[in-house]
Amino acid sequence: MWNKNKLTEKLGISYPIIQAGMAGGITTPELVAAVSNAGGLGTLGAGYLNAEQTRESILKIKQLTDKPFAVNLFTPETPEVRDTEVAQANEWLLPCREALNISEVPKVKEYSTAAFEQQIQVIIEEQVPICSFTFGIPSQETLQQLKENHIVLMGTATTVTEAKANEASGMDMIVMQGSEAGGHRGTFLGSFEDAMIGTMALIPQAADQVNIPLIAAGGISDGRGVLAALVLGAQGVQIGTAFLTSLESGANEQHKQAVLNSKEDQLTVTSAFSGKPARGIQNDFITKMKEYEMHLPPYPIQNTLTQPIRREAGKQSQAKWMSLWSGQNPRSCKQLPAGELIAEMVTQIDQISL
Amino acid sequence: MWNKNKLTEKLGISYPIIQAGMAGGITTPELVAAVSNAGGLGTLGAGYLNAEQTRESILKIKQLTDKPFAVNLFTPETPEVRDTEVAQANEWLLPCREALNISEVPKVKEYSTAAFEQQIQVIIEEQVPICSFTFGIPSQETLQQLKENHIVLMGTATTVTEAKANEASGMDMIVMQGSEAGGHRGTFLGSFEDAMIGTMALIPQAADQVNIPLIAAGGISDGRGVLAALVLGAQGVQIGTAFLTSLESGANEQHKQAVLNSKEDQLTVTSAFSGKPARGIQNDFITKMKEYEMHLPPYPIQNTLTQPIRREAGKQSQAKWMSLWSGQNPRSCKQLPAGELIAEMVTQIDQISL
User: Fold this and answer.
1) Which segments within B205-286 are labelled E, that is strand?
2) Any CB–CB contact under 8 A between B6 and chain A?
3) Which of A70, A242, A322, B315, CA to CA, is 20 to 30 A from A284?
4) A308 pairs with which residues across the strands?
5) What is the rounded CA–CA span in Å between residue A157 and residue A176?
């Protein structure tokens, strides 16, 4: 069944399995390299890194693998900072900060696209083979620069309309993120609620409307999901949560255990951590912030405000204040080396008989 | 690929494709018979019928096919009627009634399980081969009576917990309803929000936890979805929306056209029509009732209150006041005879090459 398709050929990989570029220290160079060495495509989640951190991680990955890998960037957003909104959010966050003995209230400065532009230069300088984007489509100038440097471009879409926009922008392929997916929703056109489309419905409809290869994401944790996605019309899959619990993942151990012990009906979508909707395991932070959710500052302002809370919760191993991102298929996740996870998926696919 | 499996053997059908028992006049005897005659399993949606209407439809189906078919029943709920709650809901519904020139305000009587019990007797007397249930599991007495009469029992679940409860009750098979599904959510344990699990994630997790055959529902409108569901671990599929637009379907023509012209991101889940969450196409009724949604009477009280609105909207062809149920895969729906839809699905499956 592992015939090469346009996607695996373009990416130069053996299996159409992409490890999602989860941000926040989860995608260690060891994880990225392990996935690429096993025949999949590892992705550095550089969404929250600055240019120098991005370069440092890329150099480490190159030491660990000579296979293709990707870097995921967040297309930047620069919302206006409203002081009263920030003050109100800080008041709501105070009980969480007190519970964790945090005295630091993060400074919110005006946001710019400078850090993103510096990351783009690093990616070009380091000749990263593949660059993927979440939260929208960068400028034509940026995309052209990457194309001229022969970097493969991968967009993210949550609706057919967003898929068409990605195709029109010149992306080489698109991650179609179904509603099952863990972490942040990639929605950038229209409301996120309208764009909560299950993978089973999203893939065939998108496949009928765009001509570039599609990568299915959301709810896929094992070989059954990989093969089902190919049947639906995708040419590959992107898997996050199942690699989050892998041995090489840099996710906090509390986070890994929370996923491994979670069930499909214990998850929710919240904007409380970052100002942007994301799927994770229900906990005290989400419950307590629920009533304020509609009035919080937008991403990335709220993300800046909660950053010390998330960091300190990790240090203190207090899962109730952490962002425990997870997709809707936690029951299939295992704590294994990433390479073994890929080998298991491939074996499982070969054994499926109908 | 059409090896018999436990599901098709137990149901006595050629293809593992079940037409969903959509209530409200959609599943005409002609539709049910056309699906069964084409090798699938047609289902009469008897949720809103009384015993005599149920018998009448069954007799017509028997005239049109000698193949197995199913009847779907709603496991009854008997909420307490609170007069102030009903009066408030009627006030909120008044603008809709006025827009449609409806003077009738439906009488809400106490609800009982008598009509359901009479339906069960009809199903036994008419020797209906298969009986499926939505909104929970009937009493052991009812299930035993059906079993003694060799009627195959099919439950509905939206989480693994609900699947286990169905298996423990003695059901022969379970429809696993993913979040993509159109119409009413079948959730009966826990909150419906927690049970909005995408089909891609729901099926493999349930398949690992229960031993009876599973039927995937939600987001499946063509052969790609059927095969993907089998790959994920289901033994069959249940399809609603794609049969709603078929020629034999009794759905209002406005409803059919709304689905055929709809896109995957124009749907929402609302409790405003019936008091129970259901997925359909956004329209004025849903928008106007949004702010009251949390304070409406429970199902089936709200359903009784909106019944004249839905009926009159249908007569006047005013789609904006109708319940335009649809799953998240409307782009794949076609206006064809139901038998041709099944033949197309089977052909499509045979042509899938990876």
Assistant:
1) 214-217, 236-239, 267-270, 278-281
2) no
3) A242
4) none
5) 5
ipTM: 0.97
Class of domain A1-78+113-248+337-354: alpha beta
B291: which residues sit within 8 A by CB, 6+ positions away? none
Chain A window 230-259: which residues touch B at a Cβ cutoff of 8 Å?
A: 230-233
In this predicted structure, what is the pLDDT of residue A1? Answer: 54
H-helix or E-strand containing B231?
A: helix B223-232
Alpha carbon distances (Å) from B144 to A69, A351, B148, B153, B171: 58, 38, 6, 10, 10
DSSP annotation of B90 reads: H
Topology of the domain comprising B6-78+113-261+328-349:
TIM Barrel (3.20.20)
- Rounded Cα gap, residues B89 and B233, in angstroms: 43
Strand B278-281 relative to strand B183-184, pairing: antiparallel
For chain A of 354 residues, list the mean pLDDT of each consecutive stretch of 10.
85 98 97 98 97 98 98 96 96 96 91 96 98 98 98 98 98 98 98 98 98 98 98 98 98 98 98 98 97 96 96 96 98 97 97 89
Among A4, A191, A265, A349, which would you mutate to test the B interface (most chain B Cβ atoms within 10 Å of its Cβ)? A265
The two three-digit tokens of residue B243, written as one number: 């049969």
- DSSP per-residue letters across A197-232: --HHHHHHHHHTT--S-EEEESS--SHHHHHHHHHH
Question: In degrees rounded to 5, what are phi and psi of residue A113?
Answer: -95, 5
What's the pTM value of the predicted model, to 2 decimals? 0.97
What is the rounded CA–CA span in Å between residue A13 and residue A38? 9
Chain A interface disruption, residue of B200, B224, B282, B351, most A CBs within 10 A: B200
Tell me the two tokens of residue A259. Answer: 């996923």
Angle between the N-to-C axes of helices B140-148 and B114-125, in degrees from 0 to 180, rounded to the nearest 10: 10
Q: Are B175 and B238 in contact (CB under 8 A)?
A: yes
Instruction: Give the count of beta carbons closer than 10 Å to the beta carbon of residue B154.
Output: 29
Going by C-beta distance under 8 Å and a sequence separation of 6 or more, which residues neighbour residue A191?
none
